[in-house]
Amino acid sequence: MQNQLGFVFKVFLLSAGLSALIKYILPNLYIPATATNALVIVFLPSVILTSVFLWRLQRRQN
Asked: Could you tell me the pTM of the whole model?
């Protein structure tokens, strides 16, 4: 039970930090609204997750 509570607390802190970053820091950055930037923003999470999963698959096979 203690381990699950710690995990939930870590997820909560990560979520709060990410939301504060989005609300207070990111609006100060100038990112032009171009098609290239939109494609990068849309596809980057999928590319990152695919990379992580392939890396984990390779580690498991060795």
From this structure: 0.57
